[in-house]
């Protein structure tokens, strides 16, 4: 059984203009050890797919018209809010684009990490290196220790001291590392990362990608990496799904799809990326292609 | 030379006690007429500060900036206004840089009104000029009386370019003009910039953090790191034979869409 199996996911969203179908039957299967890239232009439905897996789309405005999302023997679309709370942060880790909106500026980094570690520890004390029935104070102490270890692991220098800093004392790249630490602290089986490096400089991006890559190698987790950057996909993903207007146009192993795209849209996207080798006049956009050509 | 920047240093906050922050440190570069000069560097390296110094929105701590031989920071207000008509800027964010409450017609004619002494026109002539500009940037007459929110990001950036071109400048500063756009849309805007340069003989000072974009657009490039230029020269030289460690690091960090070039992928 696959780690995550999304079948025929159809989602509609309601706005003041009425209800519109956004996802038109997404099929995606992720195994352990795989990093799936989901690429596509703004508005193609990437984030809503990721948020569906975490069940973070409130209803209304969201409404699922069909499909299921199988994870750990359960259909997440049918899971109770309580089950989902237990899964999030424990079995499903999440990282979003903008670290400033996901760290609370008034709490120390440590307080926020220890909270997540305690939450995971209640569910499974072994995450904190404890056995069942450990005392509250032992849990607290172990949670802090785990938080420091995790910060150290994501490359925060001098983690034991910096854990007591506030978010604004960290650079953008460091804040994104904290979010990765937070997502990984519960030892999730699946990591959903929505544009985790989009707000970062390329040098920091390269470090974060290496971090995600190494975590997958070490813990054998599965990753859904949402990005609009084909370069990022080519770097660390084992597989890729190309999204266009709420549909996956093609998907498969990354070399197959990017080296020999079967869809004109994928080829057109590739032809629009300026690389350090692209010469004047070689770039093409999508305007020559009619939307019907992609259907 | 069109633009000559010589030994420019900009220190913020020197008036208070303490050291001050050196945003630009002895920067020198020259932009040839009709060419595209790229400035590449990561966030906070001082790129936007340099454009503000060129437009005289910031004073210099030391150094000179000459536009067609004239020392920009020594000009009178009236002389500066005439220079500004020939030296225009396109901003990064096509969402924030267009006034949402006025029509495309009014947005694009704004500089024609600001510079009415340099380029006198009747209101009829202004409307004709706006129509001409819309066609030039790949939009049409139908768009004249619409509002910014009715346009996509790429179209808004075309509107920003049309506005910058309204008074027929020779020189465009483009500060990350495509950073907020999807790559497919970016490709079209970059191709538009190529075409406009060929048609109008424009000179570009093009700022970006994306090395691929710089190579595509520019003839020459300078690499900026923490307010200092670490390396500059023809793009092919810098990209194919970088001498500076920082430039090399940037080039290596740039993710290429060819999976075989990934540092993580073992060769099977
Ligand atoms: N809360 C919402 N209400 C209504 N429509 C939404 C909402 N969130 C997103 N959408 C629409 O759903 C589509 C897909 O959005 P999203 O998944 O965020 O795209 P992506 O992440 O690929 O840029 C877009 O057209 C967007 O306008
Ligand atoms: N008015 C100002 N006062 C103090 N520091 C400033 C001011 N404007 C910019 N800076 C600082 O100068 C540095 C360079 O900023 P900027 O030129 O905007 O960088 P870039 O455009 O390359 O991202 C940054 O560290 C920024 O915080
Ligand atoms: Mg998104
Ligand atoms: Mg800037």
From TrEMBL, chain A:
<dbReference type="Pfam" id="PF00005">
    <property type="entry name" value="ABC_tran"/>
</dbReference>
<feature type="domain" description="ABC transporter">
    <location>
        <begin position="4"/>
        <end position="270"/>
    </location>
</feature>
<dbReference type="Pfam" id="PF08352">
    <property type="entry name" value="oligo_HPY"/>
</dbReference>
<keyword id="KW-0547">Nucleotide-binding</keyword>
<keyword id="KW-1003">Cell membrane</keyword>
<dbReference type="InterPro" id="IPR017871">
    <property type="entry name" value="ABC_transporter-like_CS"/>
</dbReference>
<dbReference type="InterPro" id="IPR050388">
    <property type="entry name" value="ABC_Ni/Peptide_Import"/>
</dbReference>
<keyword id="KW-0067">ATP-binding</keyword>
<keyword id="KW-0472">Membrane</keyword>
<dbReference type="InterPro" id="IPR013563">
    <property type="entry name" value="Oligopep_ABC_C"/>
</dbReference>
<dbReference type="InterPro" id="IPR027417">
    <property type="entry name" value="P-loop_NTPase"/>
</dbReference>
<dbReference type="GO" id="GO:0005524">
    <property type="term" value="F:ATP binding"/>
</dbReference>
<keyword id="KW-0813">Transport</keyword>
<comment type="similarity">
    <text>Belongs to the ABC transporter superfamily.</text>
</comment>
<dbReference type="InterPro" id="IPR003439">
    <property type="entry name" value="ABC_transporter-like_ATP-bd"/>
</dbReference>
<dbReference type="InterPro" id="IPR003593">
    <property type="entry name" value="AAA+_ATPase"/>
</dbReference>
<protein>
    <submittedName>
        <fullName>ABC transporter ATP-binding protein</fullName>
    </submittedName>
</protein>
Automatic annotation (TrEMBL), chain B:
<dbReference type="Pfam" id="PF08352">
    <property type="entry name" value="oligo_HPY"/>
</dbReference>
<dbReference type="GO" id="GO:0005524">
    <property type="term" value="F:ATP binding"/>
</dbReference>
<comment type="similarity">
    <text>Belongs to the ABC transporter superfamily.</text>
</comment>
<keyword id="KW-0813">Transport</keyword>
<feature type="domain" description="ABC transporter">
    <location>
        <begin position="3"/>
        <end position="251"/>
    </location>
</feature>
<dbReference type="InterPro" id="IPR017871">
    <property type="entry name" value="ABC_transporter-like_CS"/>
</dbReference>
<keyword id="KW-0067">ATP-binding</keyword>
<dbReference type="InterPro" id="IPR003593">
    <property type="entry name" value="AAA+_ATPase"/>
</dbReference>
<protein>
    <submittedName>
        <fullName>ABC transporter ATP-binding protein</fullName>
    </submittedName>
</protein>
<dbReference type="InterPro" id="IPR013563">
    <property type="entry name" value="Oligopep_ABC_C"/>
</dbReference>
<dbReference type="InterPro" id="IPR050319">
    <property type="entry name" value="ABC_transp_ATP-bind"/>
</dbReference>
<keyword id="KW-0547">Nucleotide-binding</keyword>
<dbReference type="InterPro" id="IPR027417">
    <property type="entry name" value="P-loop_NTPase"/>
</dbReference>
<dbReference type="InterPro" id="IPR003439">
    <property type="entry name" value="ABC_transporter-like_ATP-bd"/>
</dbReference>
<dbReference type="Pfam" id="PF00005">
    <property type="entry name" value="ABC_tran"/>
</dbReference>
């Amino acid at each position: 059984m696959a780690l995550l199996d999304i079948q025929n996911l159809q989602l509609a969203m309601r706005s003041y203009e009425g209800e519109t179908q956004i996802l038109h039957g997404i099929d995606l299967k992720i195994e352990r050890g795989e990093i799936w890239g989901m690429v596509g232009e703004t508005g193609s439905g990437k984030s809503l797919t990721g948020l569906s897996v975490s069940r973070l789309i409130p209803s209304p405005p969201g409404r699922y018209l069909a499909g299921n999302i199988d994870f750990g023997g359960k259909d997440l679309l049918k899971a109770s809010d309580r089950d989902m709370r237990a899964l999030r942060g424990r079995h499903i880790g999440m990282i979003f684009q903008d670290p400033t909106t996901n760290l609370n500026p008034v709490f120390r980094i440590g307080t926020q990490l220890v909270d997540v570690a305690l939450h995971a520890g209640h569910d499974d004390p072994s995450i904190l290196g404890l056995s069942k029935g450990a005392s509250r104070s032992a849990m607290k102490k172990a949670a802090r220790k785990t938080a420091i270890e995790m910060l150290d692991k994501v490359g925060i220098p001098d983690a034991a001291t910096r854990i007591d800093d506030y978010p604004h004392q960290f650079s953008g790249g460091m804040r994104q590392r904290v979010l990765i630490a937070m997502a990984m602290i519960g030892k999730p089986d699946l990591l959903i990362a929505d544009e985790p490096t989009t707000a970062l400089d390329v040098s920091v991006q390269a470090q974060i990608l290496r971090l995600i890559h190494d975590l997958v190698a070490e813990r054998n987790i599965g990753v859904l990496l949402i990005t609009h950057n084909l370069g990022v996909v080519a770097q660390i993903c084992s597989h890729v799904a190309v999204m266009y207007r709420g549909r996956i146009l093609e998907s498969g192993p990354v070399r197959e799809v990017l080296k020999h795209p079967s869809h004109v849209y994928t080829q057109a996207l590739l032809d629009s990326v300026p690389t350090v080798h692209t010469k004047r006049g070689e770039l093409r956009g999508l305007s020559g292609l009619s939307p019907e050509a992609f259907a | 030379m069109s633009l000559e920047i010589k030994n420019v240093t900009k220190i913020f906050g020197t008036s208070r006690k303490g050291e001050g922050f050196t945003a630009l440190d002895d920067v020198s570069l020259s932009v040839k007429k009709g060419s595209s000069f790229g400035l590449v560097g990561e966030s906070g390296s001082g790129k936007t500060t340099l454009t503000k110094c060129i437009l005289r929105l910031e004073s210099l701590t030391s150094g000179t900036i000459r536009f067609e031989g004239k020392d920009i920071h020594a000009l009178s207000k009236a002389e500066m206004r005439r220079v500004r008509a020939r030296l225009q800027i396109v901003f990064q964010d096509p969402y924030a840089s267009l006034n949402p409450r006025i029509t495309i017609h009014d947005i694009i004619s704004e500089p024609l009104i600001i510079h009415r002494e340099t380029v006198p026109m009747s209101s009829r002539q202004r409307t004709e000029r706006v129509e001409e500009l819309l066609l030039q940037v790949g939009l049409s007459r139908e768009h004249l009386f619409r509002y910014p929110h009715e346009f996509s990001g790429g179209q808004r950036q075309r509107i920003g370019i049309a506005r910058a071109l309204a008074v027929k400048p020779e020189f465009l500063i483009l500060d990350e003009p495509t950073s907020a756009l999807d790559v497919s849309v970016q490709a079209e805007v970059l191709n538009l910039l190529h075409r406009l340069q060929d048609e109008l003989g424009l000179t570009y000072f093009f700022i970006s953090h994306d090395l691929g974009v710089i190579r595509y657009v520019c003839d020459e490039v300078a690499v900026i790191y923490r307010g200092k230029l670490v390396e500059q020269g023809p793009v092919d030289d810098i990209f194919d034979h970088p001498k500076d460690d920082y430039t090399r690091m940037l080039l290596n960090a740039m993710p290429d869409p060819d999976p075989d070039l990934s540092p993580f992928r073992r060769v099977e």
